[in-house]
Amino acid sequence: MSFNSSIPRLKPGADTDLQYVGLGAGLQWFTAFVVLSPCFGAPFTLSFFRSLKYLGLNIPRILLYWLDTVARNWYYRLKVVLPNYGRLRQTRRIKNSKAGKTALVLANGPSVAQLDPEKIRRLQRENGLEVFAVNSFISSPMAEVVKPDYYLLSDPAFFQPDKFPHLTDRLTRDMTRLAEADIPCFVPLERYDAVPFRQKYGYYDRGNLFLSKITITGPRSYISMTSYKALAAACFMGYSQIYISGFDNDYFLNVVVDENNDLYYVDRHFYDKPGTAPPASATPTPTAWASCSTHTIFCSKTSKNSVITQSSTSAKTA
């Protein structure tokens, strides 16, 4: 089974950890310093801190970030998980429930447009392929052919559309269509009661980038992006093969500047009309270059994993 040459295949047990590697590297450097400093004395200490400065690592900030992460997760457990423990336990019941099956996780990157919707629908019907989708996929032309088997929402805008006036109509439309389609949907545990879906699963929505475990019932070790959470949900459910598409990781190509040299980020999706860029999709972002790191992190983590391979057959072939 294959879709196009840009779709990596994840096998069971694949390390899909998308954690920010710089944080882990900083702690490793700090550990090395504590262990080796007494042995080599002042020259080693001086060299160590010069190396940290060269690499842009700041141990005190990393340690403070770790403490902040731990505190935020405990607060989330007390405020959100404890009152909703029964709902999280319901999500735990579906762990490894899809052994032997195949999934296709669709992000909304432009590359999804290369897929053949009719072929995907046929694979769903004849081969039991199960499709995961996110965000506004439900209102895309592809959704008229391909009905997702599972859906995942994460963006706060979907749960509070009135706070985003320029998106309210679109978000309300998406939520209405999703409810009418009766697709099982994963939502943040704290948003469980805010959605009208009949079939829904609550997931733990706080991160801890110092961890490496891929889960949706505990702190995530990957960047807070909806498509990554959908991929984590598929891994959590134990599919034997997982295909992905739309994870373009080309955020650095979408950073633009205006005449004042202010940075903006333009959201691009597979369902956007060619040659159009709605003004609402260009948003000021003082941390635009952080988006560039997601590309580097994703590629560096997956390229080192020998069990991830590339499909070689075009998505347009029958």
Summarize the structure.
By secondary structure, this protein is an alpha/beta fold. The protein is built from 7 helices and 11 strands. The longest helix is centred in the N-terminal third of the chain and has 35 residues, at 21-55.
Describe this structure in words.
By secondary structure, this protein is of the alpha/beta class. 37% of the residues lie in helices and 13% in strands. The chain is built from seven helices and eleven strands. It is globular and about 65 Å long.
Descriptive tags:
318 residues, disordered N terminus, eight-stranded mixed sheet, disordered C terminus, 7 helices, 11 strands, single chain, alpha/beta
Which word captures the global form?
Answer: globular
If you compute it from the alpha carbons, what radius of gyration comes out, rounded to the nearest whole angstrom?
21 Å
- The helicity comes to 25-40%
Biggest beta sheet attributes: 8 strands, mixed
Q: Give start-end ranges of low-pLDDT stretches.
A: 1-26, 277-282, 285-289, 301-318
Overall pLDDT level = 75
Strand order of the largest sheet: 6-5-4-3-2-7-1-11
State the oligomer. single chain
How many β-strand stretches?
Answer: 11
* CA distance, first residue to last residue: 11 Å
Structural class: alpha/beta
What is the H-and-E element order?
A: EHHHEHEEHEEHEEEEHE
Q: What percentage of the residues does DSSP assign to strands (E)?
A: 5-15%
Output the number of helix runs: 7
Question: How are the SSEs ordered, and which strands pair?
Answer:
Elements: E1 8-10, H1 21-55, H2 59-81, H3 85-92, E2 102-106, H4 117-127, E3 130-134, E4 150-152, H5 168-181, E5 185-188, E6 200-203, H6 226-236, E7 241-245, E8 255-257, E9 263-266, E10 282-284, H7 288-303, E11 309-310
Parallel strand pairs: 2-3, 2-7, 3-4, 4-5, 5-6
Antiparallel strand pairs: 1-7, 1-11, 8-9, 9-10
